[in-house]
Amino acid sequence: MDDFLSNFVLKEDEKELSYSKKDILKFLKQIGVDSRFVSFFDDDGDIRLYIENLRFSKFSKKRRETFNKRYPNIEVVRSTLFQKISSRASKTLAESLSPKERIIIPRMDNDYNKLLYIVIEPYSRKYGISFIEYSEDIDLDDIDSIISPLNLNQEVNHILNDIFDGKGIDWDKKANDAYSQYGISTDKKDIKIVFPFINVPQ
Question: Per-residue pLDDT for 171 more than 60?
Answer without folding.
Answer: no
